[in-house]
UniProtKB/TrEMBL annotation:
Protein's UniProt name: PaaX family transcriptional regulator
A Pfam entry, by short name: PaaX_M
Segments forming domain Transcriptional repressor PaaX-like N-terminal: 31-96
Matches recorded under InterPro entries: PaaX-like_central, PaaX-like_N, PaaX_C, WH-like_DNA-bd_sf
Source organism per UniProt: Micromonospora noduli
Residue span, Transcriptional repressor PaaX-like C-terminal domain: 202-290
Domain Transcriptional repressor PaaX-like central Cas2-like residues, every copy: 117-189
């Protein structure tokens, strides 16, 4: 089985929707890194940053100048960024729709890995049947189901331990045009020893190995984080990478019931380690981003501010819409 981190879509492909966030792929995707950088330091204010500063920050992560400029241009075309120009200087900021999406996504990532609610023993089952000539629609539906925390128990039958939310119901209606049926109920175990339990829709061992790999990768960094030895570009790179890695876990392990998991499940240790690294590097990373931006701006940018995991749980909102030059083109339970 391929690594669970090979899941292509963390954000669903919205097809013809006006906002299309980049795919979250294994490794560094220039578009994904650009979105993470802007979200981590400008999500609340949506302040515009000089394009040269964004290119410089991406360059510190290994993205070439050409690759950075291409990523910015594509994000603008996809409605993720808004472009503006003052004289010969172009700047970009997160669009309002992208900021709202990223805020909700950040809140979901943290809530999904900290929930302590007891499971009611029920499963939500989504059954669908789409003709072979609707393969694009079928792929979009599967990507959306994965994003919602579902996994395939059988072909055309996906399950989740969570209730179907109103937002999820609306997405399924949009993608299936009625070719779907949803149930919620308890498993009726068979006497046969070869029946498949719902939890087997997830590869529990593979998810456990992913948690273990995360802990092995980031635990050695903690002393440097706590002592303040990691700063500058290194702090920004580490903070971006730890977010891009941890954000995958709610899709791999979507609040699976602890009653059905191994006793030493590593969800909580991984969540605590993520918070220690992400929050611990917030201040030095923010200072570095400010310093890079100031090299390409006429004045300091007060809208640059790193948020913490507590901010994400509370919901980071684009509360302030600073004045910008006008854009000249976008560069219930069961019984």
């Amino acid at each position: 089985m391929a690594s669970p981190f090979d899941i292509d879509e963390i954000y669903p492909d919205d097809g013809d929707q006006p906002l299309r966030l980049p795919r979250r792929q294994v490794g560094n995707s220039p578009q994904g890194v650009a979105v993470t950088l802007l979200a981590d330091y400008t999500l609340r204010t949506r302040v515009a940053l000089p394009s040269a500063a964004i290119v410089a920050l991406l360059g510190e992560t290994g993205v070439t100048t050409a690759g950075a400029r291409t990523a910015i241009s594509r994000l603008a075309r996809r409605g993720v960024l808004e472009g503006s120009r003052l004289g010969r200087r172009s700047s970009y900021r997160l669009s309002r729709a992208a900021a709202a999406n990223l805020s909700a996504g950040g809140q979901w990532i943290l809530a999904s890995t900290t929930s302590t609610a007891r499971w009611d023993g029920c499963w939500t089952i989504v059954a669908f049947s789409l003709p072979q000539d609707r393969s694009t629609q079928r792929r979009a539906l599967r990507a959306q189901l994965r994003w919602l925390g579902y996994a395939p128990l059988y072909d055309g039958l996906w399950i989740s331990p969570q209730e179907l939310t109103s937002a999820a119901r609306a997405e399924l209606d949009r993608l299936t045009l009625g070719a779907v049926t949803v149930f919620r109920g308890r498993q009726s175990a068979l006497a046969s020893a070869i029946h498949r339990a719902p939890i087997e829709a997830w590869d529990i061992e593979a998810i456990g190995r992913s948690y273990d790999g995360f802990l092995r990768r980031w635990t050695p960094l903690l002393p440097g984080v706590r002592s303040g030895q990691i700063d500058g570009a290194a702090a920004v790179r580490a903070r971006t990478e730890v977010m891009d890695t941890f954000r995958r876990f709610p899709v791999l392990d979507p609040q699976l019931p602890v009653e059905l998991l191994p006793r030493d499940w590593l969800r909580r240790p991984a969540r605590e380690l993520f918070a220690a690294v992400y929050d611990g590097l917030a201040a030095p990373a923010e200072r570095h981003v400010r310093a890079v931006v100031e090299r390409f701006a006429d004045a300091a940018q007060p809208g640059i501010a790193a948020h913490t995991t507590a901010d994400l749980v509370a919901g980071v909102r684009a509360d302030v819409d600073p004045a910008q030059p006008s854009a000249s083109g976008s560069a219930t339970g069961c019984s």
